[in-house]
Amino acid sequence: MTTALLVLTLASTLAVGAWLGAWFDRLAPLLYGGRAAGPLAPLRAGAAALLRPRIETEAPDRMNARLAPGWYLALAAAGLSVVPFAPGAALIETPVGIVVWGSCEALTIVAVFLHGWSPNAPFPLIGAYRYAAIGLPVMLPSMFVLIAAALPAESLSFTAIVESQREVWNIVRQPLGLPLFLIVGLTLTLRGPMDFADAADIAGGTSAEDSGPGRALWQGARLAMLVSFSAVAATTFLGGPLGPALPGPVWLWIKTAAIMALTVAVGHGVARTTPSRMLTILWVVLLPLSFVHLLVSGVLAL
Amino acid sequence: MIDALVILLVLFAAWTGWRVFRVDSMIRATFSLMLSFISVGAIGVLLSAPYIGVATVFMMAVEMMVMGIFMVMFMMNPAGLNPMMMVHQHKLSIVAGVLAALGLGAAVLTTTLPTDPVPGETDVVSDLGHELLGPSMLIFETAGVTLLATMIGAVVLSSRRGRYGQADEGSRPPGLDPGGPPAGRQPEGEGGHHHHHHHHGGH
Q1: Mean pLDDT across chain A, nearest whole number?
Q2: Which of A2, A107, A301, B185 has the largest count of CB atoms under 10 Å?
Q3: Residues 87 to 146 of B: which have CB under 8 A from any A CB?
Q4: With a CB-CB cutoff of 8 Å, which residues 38-97 of chain B face chain A?
């Protein structure tokens, strides 16, 4: 019974969250004086994409071309399944929650790579290799940030991480964590400064050859991953379902929506640099910074 | 139930492992191998080793992505979509494969494996942590430092930038035919002005 309810909650969180994320994307132009669109615009765009015919490239890897959006969506769902909607109520209650989420992150790079590799076309392939080169070093700050959050909880489970934040949220005692984790989120959702897969400078990258239902599903999976990442960030740094008066899931939804809005705003507001320069920034600045973050968090947690 | 799942995962791991040698591209081989390892990780989770199982999935996803890129780089198969033969040195590999299978099989059959199930309330993750940073610390740290040194060494050796200048300074690619003009892009810097003399129809 509880399991059925949690499955339903997870599915509806992903669906409603994906719509909200798509609307945030259409509100974002207001940040730089552009025109915003209404809440129905993403639904119209999705329906239009579904009705368009699919295009076939020459000699593609059909299996991976069809499956890649499905993998991406499944990874978003698997990542959300270890997040507790109320204290102690995750769909999959595991002692190694942050490792499960880490696996979803790493497999996301594989799914995006296969999405770009499978059409057998130049722009998607460039996007795939660029993304793999940037995505792999992003995994390292992600691991350090998550391990740092596990230190005060003395556990790898998200439920214990939520419990450890009853007194004070992790965003207060680990201030570097959320900014570093936001970079991971931008990478996982192919957004703004970290969008080296599907960017406009390579004509849409891994989705350059997408059309029809496949394109709709890929964009939907991107938004679902935004929801999952934001829920994980809200759980790790903002106390997840903890909060006064309102029930746990409502607090988690509010915090998730706030992180989603922040991620969308940063994605629209920060420029993207070249892959080589970003690679230097990742290895030379962000990796040592996440070491420092882990060290400080470890000393504070003692 | 768990037995049936383990058997299914073993079969899937063996089948995807076999596919590694039957597919015709480096990328397909790489990710077949990844699926094989992920099944092994899932077996670990089912056998009450959640950390080792899930960490296997995480590590293999990252490692296979790196391996795929490196294989495409070194195998001169730019997209990884060109059909190619995945096996070579047939006789040697058959002998090595049979010997390895016999050796590992003998090792498994002659070892007395524990049969008692893990009690439900055991905190296996915390036990593993205490083991790794307690009695097994020396092995664990030795392996960790060796891997780190290997990674740094590989990065240093493959880096284009170095303290004595660019690694490929003055290097010439080999000719397409023996003694012929260098293939592909001409080295920059030295002899740049007679660039067009070297130009040939090999593109």
Answers
A1: 91
A2: A107
A3: 123-125
A4: 50-51, 54-55, 57-58, 61-62, 64-66, 68-69, 79-81
Phi, psi of B110 (to 5 degrees): -90, -10
Determine the straight-line distance between the first and last CA of chain A, rounded to whole angstroms: 40
pLDDT, one tens digit per residue, over A252-286 is 999 999 999 999 999 998 999 999 899 999 999 99
A88 contacts A159 by C-beta, under 8 angstroms: yes
Backbone phi, psi, residue B175, to 5°: -75, 160
What's residue B152's pLDDT? 85
Token pair 């019974």: residue: A1
With CA atoms as reference, the chain B residue closest to A108 would be B61
Each residue of B42-90: pLDDT tens digit? 999 998 888 999 999 999 999 999 988 888 777 665 545 566 677 778 8
The answer to whether residues A75 and A53 touch, using CB atoms and an 8 Å cutoff, is: no
Q: Which of A84-93, B25-34, B164-173 has the lowest mean pLDDT?
A: B164-173
Asked if B61 and A103 come within 8 Å (Cβ–Cβ), the reply is yes
CA distance A222 to chain B (A): 19
Per-domain boundaries in chain B: 1-85, 123-160
Rounded CA gap, A189 and A207, in Å?
13
Separation in Å, CA B96 to CA A185, B89, B92, B103: 45, 11, 6, 10
Which of A45-49, B9-13, B176-180 has the least mean pLDDT? B176-180
Please name the residues in contact with A153: beta carbons below 8 A apart, sequence gap of 6 or more: A160, A161, A163, A164
User: Quick check: helix, strand or coil at residue B175?
Assistant: strand
